Amino acid sequence: MRRSGLDRLTGPWLFLDDGEWYCCVILEATATEVRIHPNDHRYPHNVYALTLDCPGSETFRPG
User: Fold this and answer.
1) What's the start-to-end Cα distance of the chain, in Å?
2) How far, in Å, CA of 48 to CA of 61, rounded?
3) I need a surface site. Which of 1, 10, 50, 60 has the fewest CB within 10 A?
4) 4-46, pLDDT tens digit by residue?
5) How many whole angstroms separate alpha carbon 59 and alpha carbon 9?
């Protein structure tokens, strides 16, 4: 990921919530957390942003 830098973060991503994968975009990222905007019409919650603490490949991945 270090080689592709910021370009890698701008694409679509998927996050896991209640056993379902949903599309999102990254708003902010640090070494320990990622703030995302759910960008999926199927996502059942009306929120603008979520913070994922220590996301790993089992809960957050490139789309």
Assistant:
1) 14
2) 19
3) 1
4) 566 777 889 999 999 999 999 999 999 999 999 999 999 999 9
5) 16
